[in-house]
Q: What sequence folds into this?
């Protein structure tokens, strides 16, 4: 287990908004009565940067953000099991570039949706329980990982996971990468593929004292959150010769009041300049990730937004922020052009 050394205290951001950017509500959709747990922009294909997908209940829906706050419904996929509840969805693509959506949830079944041909491409059964997270490797977007994990943006071999044991674990696929490559050209029966099991992580970090429900790589740093009303930016310092050992430097903290319930996740824009996270009262906190000390760009609230926000989605440049809520609503906020 990695240890936190004695030294400098982390820099904590001020909750006074800098007003560097102002946002206003431009749309609100009521998708249904069941909670929406996921919303995500398509950063995989530049032709579709304004497309986004949501997941909630037994439905995955594809939308497009248009000018003037307009949101157009493009496609909707309804699972045959009315009791399914999708918790996560991620954009990916086939090896030929065909855009895919990969979704999972309560039933532990991964649905791969071919959005180009508007049909289910594959269904994968392998998890013994519900799927809380699916992530796509940005450098190899036909490679996805499921559970509660996140790919390193530039080190293609590393994955970070988090969960109910209060830790963040870093895993390496380097030793087995030849099998990853082999999977792209495998033509034999899937059951004959030499599946590899990685039993031990290369690093275990105990940064939080409660469940960890979201983590993202920010370069070689890690941004993670628990139910402690804050995001934490920290640096894992691994000992290459001693897997599992090392130290942690906690660098900065980004306060998020009333964010003390499980399964509230944050998101970043494409360049990881801005992070947005909701809370249980329907408010959104928008922070500059790379500023020191952290800068609160904006605190977004609306009189009708009172339901817990499960996930946010920032557009490519951060000019649009979406959020999906426990009450089945989707909210769109757009940056106000400076005069």
A:
């Amino acid at each position: 287990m990695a240890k936190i050394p004695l030294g400098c205290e982390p820099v904590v951001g001020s909750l006074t908004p800098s007003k560097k950017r102002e946002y206003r509500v431009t749309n609100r959709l009521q998708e249904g009565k069941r909670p929406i747990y996921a919303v995500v922009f398509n950063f995989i294909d530049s032709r579709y940067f304004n497309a986004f997908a949501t997941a909630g209940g037994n439905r995955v829906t594809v939308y497009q953000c248009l000018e003037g706050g307009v949101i157009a419904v493009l496609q909707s996929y309804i699972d045959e099991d009315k009791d399914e509840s999708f918790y996560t969805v991620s954009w990916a693509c086939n090896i030929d570039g065909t855009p895919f959506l990969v979704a999972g949830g309560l039933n532990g079944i991964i649905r791969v949706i071919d959005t180009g041909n508007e049909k289910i491409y594959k269904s994968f059964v392998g998890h013994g329980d519900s799927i809380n997270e699916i992530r796509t490797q940005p450098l190899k977007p036909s490679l996805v990982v499921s559970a509660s994990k996140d790919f390193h943006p530039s080190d293609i071999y590393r994955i970070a996971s988090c969960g109910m044991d209060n830790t963040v674990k870093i895993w390496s696929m380097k030793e087995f990468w030849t099998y990853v490559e082999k999977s792209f050209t495998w033509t034999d029966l899937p059951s004959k593929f030499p599946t590899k099991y990685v039993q031990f992580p290369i690093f275990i970090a105990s940064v939080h004292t409660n469940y960890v429900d979201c983590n993202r790589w920010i370069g070689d740093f890690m941004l993670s959150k628990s139910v402690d009303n804050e995001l934490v930016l920290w640096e894992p310092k691994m000992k290459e010769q001693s897997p599992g050992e090392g130290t942690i430097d906690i660098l900065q903290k980004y306060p998020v009041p009333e964010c003390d319930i499980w399964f509230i996740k944050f998101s970043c824009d494409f360049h990881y300049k801005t992070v947005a996270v909701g809370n249980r009262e329907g408010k959104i906190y928008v922070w500059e990730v790379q500023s020191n000390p952290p800068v609160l760009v904006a605190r977004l609230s609306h009189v009708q937004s009172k339901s817990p926000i499960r996930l946010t989605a920032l557009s490519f440049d951060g000019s649009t922020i979406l959020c999906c809520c426990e009450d089945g609503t989707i909210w769109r906020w757009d940056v106000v052009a400076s005069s």
User: Anything to note?
Assistant: The longest strand covers residues 246-255. The chain has a mean pLDDT of 93. Residues 106 and 130 are 4 Å apart (CA to CA).
